[in-house]
Write a structure and sequence with these properties.
- The complex is a heterodimer of chains A (about 325) and B (about 250).
- With about 325 residues, chain A is an all-alpha fold.
- Chain A is built from 12 helices and 2 strands.
- Chain A has helices at about 5-15, 30-55, 65-90, 95-100, 120-135, 145-175, 180-195, 210-215, 220-240, 265-270, 280-290, 295-315, and strands spanning about 250, 255-260.
- Chain A has a two-stranded antiparallel ribbon.
- Chain B is mainly α and about 250 residues long.
- Chain B has a single domain (about 5-245), classed as Ferritin (Up-down Bundle).
- Chain B is built from 9 helices and no strands.
- The chains are: A mainly alpha (about 325), B mainly alpha (about 250).
- Chains A and B meet through α2, α3, α11 and α12 of A and α2, α6, α7 and α9 of B.
């Protein structure tokens, strides 16, 4: 056995041996910061992601669909909770992370800055957005950081249920009236490219990738995951009988994968930098809920303190 | 349809409409709660209530027996056919309004279901036995928040007092029998809502007292919803709820 001297080498050796890093283990400051950034972005995405879908809860077209949608949006709140808790194991408070979101310092997935205009968008989000999220997240179940990996196991199970639910909404629309099928096609047209953007910049442009791969926070590159997503989704669109809005999309027999067109990176950066169709509205809705909830949170704390004081006063008397 | 069957149908719809409209109102809050944990809790109550409405609407469809489904009632009836109490259609307001409205409904709902377990209509008795588990939790949840917010800070106390003043006039309608509830043929089937009034009010008073809240006097209770006369709120709720079914009639979703 080679003698390992520095903490950093020991840490990397553990990762190389596919062992998990746990909250009390020593870790490089950059590893901790990278994880806090990634996990909190992920948590924020779940919470902001409740808004575009929540937008359709009151208008869902049947009781079954309404219950399915409410439960789905609620699952996202639950994912946000586990993820904030996973981030807290790295020594940061949920409040602090939420403040960073509200002042615009922390990012969340750009996909949620697009509007949900029709009921078919609820289907398309489940099918494409949750589908892309699963591609990204399944490898995270083997992430080197234990609490994150464990949270992702549960998140992925629920996400895959959401994806099936979304696809089933699309299928029902595509088997429905011509107006419903047109609604489904329109939703695919609007969500396809933003869904591909969810995998992030091309590998050559991706700033955090190399280090994250070495630390086994990330297991596959952005482009690899994007390719898998396209290969998985194309036959699903064919089955629905709707067309992916990319004239360059075709099967390459030799490479055994699909070729596809170039993403509009100007649009990608525009939305990332806060200028998408709903960036302002999404953040404003989060800030409003938080500010209007301040008195409720304050009262809960005040009441809990009163209770504690009462108990300690009583025990002093006793 | 046979007269007694129709009376039973109207009664079942009245129960379903209460759960449906309150569930719909709470659904509006999903993603906008004061803290993540309470967002999830409120959403749970919404799911329970819409679930209850669904079971009752299915039963209504069975009673009618003419091919209607659970969705026909919430999605295709206009305002005058809705028989929910006015309380449940009131807006979410601030979180204090949401909690006071919920607590008032829970005081009614819990004792109503307690009695409905003994209904001579087996289906209603079964539904009550299943639903009371959820309603018990709802009552516990809203009672705790009444107390926490009433006896929290000065600001929260004032907000709760405000919500009570705004909503107290809607509390009594649940305990005033509608035309349908007075029907002879519903004896033994329907709950005598006047009989549960005292128990509900006792719970209401004791929680308000612990919450250090003063119950305002009500000179003129508001009623009408149970007989189809609603506040202006309900029209907007239905506009949202029914939009897709109205815009694309006879479609599967």
């Amino acid at each position: 056995m080679t003698e390992i001297t520095s903490l950093e080498e020991r840490f990397q050796a553990k990762i190389d041996a596919d062992q998990r890093i746990e909250p009390r283990d020593w870790m490089p400051e950059k590893y901790r910061k990278t994880l806090i950034r990634q996990i909190s972005q992920h948590a924020h995405s779940e919470i902001v992601g409740m808004l575009p879908e929540g937008n359709w809860i009151t208008r869902a077209p049947s009781l079954r669909r309404k219950l399915g949608l409410i439960a789905k949006v609620q699952d996202e709140a639950g994912h946000g909770l586990y993820l904030y808790s996973a981030a807290e194991t790295l020594g940061v408070e949920r409040d602090e992370l939420i403040d960073q979101l509200h002042i615009g310092k922390a990012k969340y997935s750009s996909i949620f800055n697009y509007p949900t205009l029709t009921w078919a968008d609820i289907g398309a989000i489940g099918w494409l957005v949750d589908g892309a999220a699963i591609m990204n997240q399944v490898p995270l179940c083997r992430c080197s950081y234990g609490p994150y990996a464990r949270a992702m196991v549960r998140v992925c199970k629920e996400e895959s249920f959401h994806q099936r639910q979304g696809y089933e909404i699309m299928l029902t629309l595509c088997e429905g009236s011509p107006a419903q099928k047109a609604m489904a096609q329109d939703a695919l047209n609007r969500w396809w490219w933003p869904a591909l953007m969810m995998f992030g910049p091309n590998d050559a442009e991706s700033t955090h990738s190399a280090q994250s791969m070495a630390w086994k926070i990330k297991r596959f590159s952005n482009d690899e995951l994007r390719q898998r997503f396209v290969d998985m989704t194309k036959p699903q669109a064919d089955y629905l009988g709707i067309t992916i809005p990319d004239p360059d999309l075709k099967w390459d027999e030799e490479k055994q994968k699909h070729d596809f067109g170039e993403i509009d990176w100007d649009e990608f950066w525009k939305v990332v930098k806060g200028h998408g169709p709903c960036n302002k509205e999404r953040l404003a809705a989060r800030v409003k809920a938080h500010e209007e909830g301040q008195w409720v949170r304050d009262a809960a704390v005040a009441y809990a303190n009163k209770k504690v004081n009462k108990i300690s006063n009583n025990s002093q008397v006793a | 349809m046979d007269k007694n069957k129709n009376i039973l149908l109207q009664y079942v719809l009245q129960l379903a409409d209460n759960a449906m409209i309150l569930g719909q109102r709470l659904g509006e809050l999903c993603g906008h709660g004061p803290i993540l944990e309470q967002d999830i809790a409120i959403t749970n109550i919404s799911l329970d209530l819409i679930g209850e409405a669904r079971v009752l609407y299915s039963y209504a469809a069975e009673i009618e027996g003419n091919g209607k489904t659970e969705d026909d009632y919430p999605y295709k009836r206009d305002i005058l056919d809705w028989k929910n109490i006015l309380l449940v259609e009131q807006p979410n307001g601030h979180f204090g309004h949401t909690i006071v409205r919920q607590f008032m409904f829970d005081c009614y709902h819990y004792y109503h279901l307690t009695e409905m377990r003994n209904s001579s209509d087996i289906r209603l008795a079964e539904i009550a036995k299943k639903t009371i588990k959820e309603a018990t939790y709802h009552l516990k949840y809203s009672s705790e928040w009444m107390i926490r917010l009433g006896d929290g800070t000065e600001e929260s106390h004032a907000k709760m007092q405000e919500a009570l003043s705004d909503l107290i006039r809607f509390f009594d309608e649940a305990f005033i029998p509608s035309k349908i509830e007075k029907e002879e043929s519903l004896k033994g089937i329907a709950v005598d809502c006047e009989r549960i009034r005292n128990r509900a009010w006792e719970k209401f008073r004791s929680v308000c007292e612990e919450a250090t809240l003063k119950i305002p006097e009500v000179e003129y209770p508001q009623e009408g919803g149970k007989n189809g006369l609603h506040s202006e709120q309900l029209g907007f709720i239905l506009a949202d709820l029914q939009f897709l079914q109205r815009a694309y009639p006879n479609s599967n979703w």
